[in-house]
Design goal:
globular; 3 strands
Length: 70
Protein backbone atom coordinates (compact mmCIF):
# COMPACT_ATOMS: atom_id res chain seq x y z
CA UNK A 1 0.00 0.00 0.00
CA UNK A 2 1.32 3.45 -0.87
CA UNK A 3 0.87 6.57 1.21
CA UNK A 4 0.33 10.07 -0.14
CA UNK A 5 4.03 10.77 -0.79
CA UNK A 6 4.57 7.49 -2.66
CA UNK A 7 6.51 5.58 -0.01
CA UNK A 8 5.80 1.91 0.61
CA UNK A 9 4.09 1.02 3.88
CA UNK A 10 6.58 -0.21 6.47
CA UNK A 11 5.38 -2.61 9.15
CA UNK A 12 6.73 -3.04 12.67
CA UNK A 13 7.47 -6.41 14.25
CA UNK A 14 4.28 -6.10 16.27
CA UNK A 15 2.18 -5.36 13.17
CA UNK A 16 3.68 -8.30 11.29
CA UNK A 17 3.22 -10.57 14.31
CA UNK A 18 -0.48 -9.69 14.42
CA UNK A 19 -0.77 -10.14 10.64
CA UNK A 20 0.88 -13.60 10.75
CA UNK A 21 -0.69 -14.47 14.13
CA UNK A 22 2.76 -15.13 15.61
CA UNK A 23 4.51 -13.95 18.74
CA UNK A 24 6.70 -10.85 18.18
CA UNK A 25 9.76 -12.78 19.41
CA UNK A 26 9.16 -15.35 16.68
CA UNK A 27 9.02 -12.58 14.07
CA UNK A 28 12.26 -11.08 15.41
CA UNK A 29 13.96 -14.50 15.24
CA UNK A 30 12.76 -15.06 11.67
CA UNK A 31 14.03 -11.59 10.70
CA UNK A 32 17.39 -12.12 12.42
CA UNK A 33 17.80 -15.53 10.74
CA UNK A 34 16.96 -14.07 7.33
CA UNK A 35 13.84 -16.21 6.93
CA UNK A 36 11.59 -13.22 6.24
CA UNK A 37 12.44 -10.10 4.21
CA UNK A 38 13.15 -7.56 6.94
CA UNK A 39 15.66 -4.80 7.60
CA UNK A 40 16.87 -2.90 10.62
CA UNK A 41 16.12 0.77 11.10
CA UNK A 42 18.36 1.64 14.00
CA UNK A 43 17.74 -1.13 16.51
CA UNK A 44 14.23 -1.96 15.29
CA UNK A 45 13.23 -4.50 12.65
CA UNK A 46 10.99 -3.24 9.85
CA UNK A 47 9.26 -4.97 6.96
CA UNK A 48 8.13 -3.30 3.74
CA UNK A 49 4.58 -4.41 2.97
CA UNK A 50 5.07 -4.67 -0.81
CA UNK A 51 8.27 -6.71 -0.37
CA UNK A 52 6.48 -8.95 2.14
CA UNK A 53 3.55 -9.48 -0.24
CA UNK A 54 5.92 -10.47 -3.08
CA UNK A 55 7.84 -12.78 -0.75
CA UNK A 56 4.63 -14.48 0.43
CA UNK A 57 3.53 -15.02 -3.18
CA UNK A 58 6.92 -16.56 -4.00
CA UNK A 59 6.76 -18.82 -0.94
CA UNK A 60 3.26 -19.96 -1.89
CA UNK A 61 4.37 -20.81 -5.43
CA UNK A 62 7.38 -22.76 -4.13
CA UNK A 63 5.16 -24.72 -1.75
CA UNK A 64 2.74 -25.53 -4.57
CA UNK A 65 5.61 -26.74 -6.75
CA UNK A 66 6.96 -28.95 -3.94
CA UNK A 67 3.49 -30.40 -3.38
CA UNK A 68 3.03 -31.09 -7.09
CA UNK A 69 6.32 -32.98 -7.35
CA UNK A 70 5.65 -35.26 -4.38
Amino acid sequence: MENTIGLAEVMTVEELAAYFKLHPLTVRRLARDGEIPAFKAGRQWRIQRDVLDAWMEEQSMQNLQKTATH
